[in-house]
Write a structure and sequence with these properties.
The complex is a heterodimer of chains A (460) and B (453). Chain A is 60% helix and 5% strand. By secondary structure, chain A is mainly alpha-helical.
Chain lengths: 460, 453
């Protein structure tokens, strides 16, 4: 794959890797394509694909059922993997996959995640291929699978029917159901395990719809080996060679937050100071509520806490003057007015881009907050991660989380799914689902406000 | 079992061999285990050469295609006196193997996997996970104590002829499936010495299965999912049973349940026992109806028919004509609960799991771990398996009668060793040689093709 600058001409090939692709819409990513990619496409294609993978990850960890996942995957793919030039859609698919291989080959944990998500994606996309395309793909994968002859099928029809009925599939007499493949049983352990196939003399008889499983396993194992090789190449040559061009992009990609950044609050100034206490109770996520309450209590917060809460408030719609007034009110109770103006006011204005290099800082995402490391005397960070179990339970119950929801939340916490825990808290407190999941404190806030406003509107 | 045989002076052992216990001594210690008895066992009876031939899988150096490192990459573990456990013993020849066993006299010998390199050299390589298993028989372990909730005659370590049929059922079901479904041919069943059976599947394909594939086979066999927290441990879903389960039911389970276990275990004769079965019926009204019937008539009306059988018929009648399939299916679920094999999953799933070698002597019972013929496993009787003491006595009695085959041929061990050879070892070695021959010829052909251009 050749990465070029945008001013250079951009040639593209219509097929992948020069060999005839088994399916016109589902590439197998067997080898790196001979395409030229523009530098900005390098990054943006990867980000689009990453949205798909993260969406799948989220769906899986929320325990979505297979048909829900199917819908989700289709939507994610449609939304993110489009290209204004329809002939470029396949290239975007291939390029984005290979870029993400670079990003996710570097540690065991990253590889595991990438492998799981890409396999899930492949599995769903394969299911939606035509029978012809599926057969072509199986051939490409050298599947040691033979189609069962009509004669053999007739002799085994009854047993095959029994197996199908035993797992809840009705073997009707349509032509597609009569297609079975014969494969050595060790090639399909997941089907053997659940007694989902008829096995005879060492061969498993796999129905067409089960073939997906077979193919997905092979895809997964090929990708797994490829990732190890990619890692080796990355570590030994690519990272060094590309340190001024691709490497920084690659290293930033896996930790990127992909939602709206709330740097331009839409409802600017909608939060007035006099409402802030009430709004904190109803719509702040636990992390910000905690910081807010501690500020009211101690009339002080350490730097990291001021940053986390302060930027959040900016995202919520507090303008710089109101913000100054807010912090001044609290801090002056502890350090006095003069000290506040001297030592703290500057930083607040800095956060709004009114001082120094005038960077307008963006409020922190959940990911960033979760990764922070609060020490003694700190109150920032993510309570689901950083609080001990007892304290967390107490805090949640003060917020109003009922005991049943509490157990679900604590379950997520134990599993280290901190954002899911926060999402469940949101759902419990608002008695409404939050399908997208919480990825940003400001998202929690705006979703909450939206729900409450809707409730108020409908009741009046 | 002890036997009171008379000694003759001329039958005394040679002076430089360990002394056999005298008649009186044996009577005092019936099945007592003693290291010196083991020494004689290993020196005269244990089939070292057969073990070697099995473990070599044809790599005995007599064919150019033999892999001389093969045997040396197999792990053997010893359990010695004072609970000392020694792993990673390896041997490069039949003599080394034999001498080591005779010298160390292990209380138990376990066989492990074949590794990628000789485990004796494992510390010469840097890094973790350098030693990985590359071949291992597919093994199964079935232990009677896993059936304690469905047998009333014994519990724990005991085994008797009333509950042993559960093992017979297990052998039949699993053996048939391994052969007919999975296509395996070289299968060795061994009595574990006390209360269970082990199975060694030695086909080449089986030896090369990955952990995941082994887990899949073990799961294919798994039906019982029990623990103290659920009273219904067998749940057979689906409109019909999978052909494997259906065949097991009609060919083995039903018959054993109805003609043997129902009566020998008195499964329905007392309230405590029939309650356990009634608990499994999802329809409360049927359960109460049966309960009522059985509480009333504590004895079967006809003196000829066993009460368990009568009650089972009553239960089947009510359940089988119910409109809900889940209720009808309950009959099979009960039968499966009380008869279907219960495997130890962990033993089968991991390539590195150690398993006791055949022909070891069980320290608690003194019985030899002899092979079981799956074709007539219903005739196997664990209470008549030769014990160490018995064999030594037999040796004593036969004394200096020479035997070309070996000393074991004078004893009850003869049948066991012959069975091992004829039904398992010889066919296995034949196939190994054939496979070696054909792959060797294929390679020769390949290199000929490369050269002839």
């Amino acid at each position: 794959m050749q990465v070029v600058r945008s001013h250079q001409s951009h040639r593209s090939f219509s097929s992948s890797s020069g060999s005839v692709s088994a399916s016109p819409t589902l590439p197998l990513y067997r080898s790196a394509p001979e395409l030229e990619v523009r530098l900005e496409d390098f990054e943006s294609f990867a980000i689009d694909r990453l949205r798909v993978l993260k969406g799948i990850s989220d769906g899986l960890s929320r325990g979505k059922k297979p048909d829900e996942m199917e819908k989700l995957v289709n939507e994610l793919w449609k939304t993110n993997m489009r290209h204004q030039d329809s002939s470029q859609v396949l290239n975007k698919d291939i390029i984005s996959h290979f870029v993400l291989r670079l990003v996710y080959c570097r540690t065991e944990e990253l590889r595991k995640w990438f492998l799981s998500m890409e396999s899930a994606l492949f599995r769903h996309r394969f299911r939606n291929q035509t029978a012809e395309a599926q057969r072509a793909i199986m051939e490409e994968f050298d599947l040691p699978c033979k189609a069962v002859s009509n004669a053999e099928f007739e002799s085994l029809k009854e047993k095959l029917g029994q197996v199908a009925r035993s797992i809840g599939h009705n073997l009707s007499l349509s032509t597609t159901d009569a297609i079975y493949y014969k494969v050595p049983f060790e090639e399909v352990p997941e089907l053997v395990t659940g007694r989902k196939v008829f096995i005879n003399q060492g061969y498993a008889y796999v129905a067409m719809n089960q073939v997906v499983s077979l193919v997905a396993t092979i895809f997964r194992s090929l990708l797994s080996k490829a990732l190890i090789l990619t890692n080796r190449k990355w570590a030994t040559s690519i990272r060094e060679q590309e340190q001024h061009r691709l490497t920084p992009i690659v290293e930033a990609l896996c930790s990127s937050y992909l939602g709206p950044d709330f740097s331009q609050p839409k409802e600017y100034g909608e939060i007035s100071l006099k409402d802030i206490d009430q709004v904190a109770k109803s719509s702040f996520p636990l992390c910000m509520r905690h910081l807010f309450e501690k500020l009211r209590e101690d009339h002080h917060l350490k730097h990291a806490g001021r940053m986390q809460l302060g930027l959040f408030l900016k995202g919520v719609g507090l303008n710089v003057d109101d913000s100054l007034a807010f912090w001044r009110e609290e801090f002056s109770k502890k350090v006095g007015l003069e000290k506040f103006e001297k030592e703290y006011a500057y930083n607040i204005r800095h956060n709004y881009g009114k001082e120094g290099k005038k960077t307008d800082y963006t409020p922190y995402s959940c990911q960033k907050i979760i990764l922070s490391t609060p020490g003694v005397g700190d109150h920032h960070g993510c309570p689901y991660r950083h609080f001990g179990e007892e304290n967390l339970r107490a805090a949640l119950s003060r917020m109003g989380v009922n005991s049943r929801a509490m157990e679900d939340v604590m379950g997520k916490v134990r599993n280290r799914d901190y954002q899911l825990a926060c999402t469940l808290t949101f759902e419990a407190l608002h008695a409404a689902p939050c399908d997208a999941g919480i990825n940003h404190p400001n998202q929690y806030f705006s979703d909450s406000q939206r729900l409450l406003k809707a409730k108020k509107d409908s009741s009046t | 079992m002890t036997r009171q045989g008379a000694y003759k002076e001329s039958d005394d052992m040679l002076i430089d061999e360990p002394k056999l216990p005298q008649q009186g001594q044996i009577a005092a210690l019936p099945n007592e285990f003693n290291p010196s008895y083991l020494k004689i066992y290993y020196s005269k009876l244990f089939p070292h050469a057969d073990l070697y031939r099995w473990m070599s899988y044809g790599n005995d150096g007599k064919h150019p295609a033999c892999d001389s490192s093969y045997l040396g990459r197999r792990e053997f573990s010893y359990t010695l006196d004072n609970d000392i456990f020694v792993r990673y013993n390896t041997f490069n020849s039949a003599t080394e193997l034999e001498n080591s066993i005779k010298d160390k006299c292990p209380l138990k010998i376990d066989i492990g996997p074949i590794y990628n390199l000789n485990p004796a050299h494992r510390n010469a390589y840097a890094g973790d996970n350098v030693l990985t298993p590359v071949e291992r028989e597919l093994i199964f372990d079935i232990d009677m104590s896993d059936y304690d909730d469905v047998r009333y005659c014994c519990s724990g370590a005991d085994v008797c002829l009333n509950c042993w049929p559960l093992m017979t059922v297990a052998v039949k079901v699993i053996d048939t499936s391994l052969r007919d479904d999975f296509g395996f041919r070289h299968i060795l069943w061994v009595y574990s010495g006390r209360r269970g059976v082990h199975c060694w599947v030695c086909d080449r394909k089986a030896r090369r299965l990955t952990n995941e594939q082994r887990a899949a086979v073990a799961d294919y066999f798994r039906v019982y999912k029990g623990n103290e927290n659920n009273y219904k441990k067998v749940s057979l879903m689906g409109q019909v049973l999978h052909p494997f389960l259906a065949r097991s039911y009609t060919e083995v389970l039903k018959e054993y349940f109805e003609t043997k276990l129902l009566t020998s275990q008195n499964l329905l004769s007392s309230e405590e026992r029939y309650e356990k079965i009634l608990e499994m019926i999802p329809d409360q009204s049927i359960a109460s109806e049966l309960r009522g019937k059985w509480q009333e008539s504590r004895r079967s009306s006809s003196a000829k028919e066993d009460i368990n059988i009568v009650r089972w018929e009553q239960l089947k009648q009510l359940l089988q004509k119910h409109k809900a399939q889940g209720v009808r299916r309950c009959v099979e679920e009960i039968v499966f609960t009380y008869t279907y094999p219960r495997l130890d999953m962990e033993v089968s799933k991991h390539m590195n799991h150690l398993l006791k070698a055949p022909f070891c002597v069980h320290p608690k019972t003194g019985r030899v771990c002899v092979p079981i013929n799956p074709n007539n496993c219903e005739e196997f009787d664990p209470t008549t398996v030769p014990t160490l003491i018995q064999l030594l006595e037999e040796l004593n009695r036969e004394g200096l009668r020479s035997d070309v085959e070996g000393e074991w041929n004078k004893t009850s061990l003869a049948n066991a060793i012959k069975l091992f050879r004829s039904s398992f070892l010889q066919p296995l070695l034949k196939i190994c040689k054939e496979e070696m021959e054909s792959s060797y010829n294929a390679k020769l052909q390949q290199s000929k093709n490369l050269l002839s251009w």
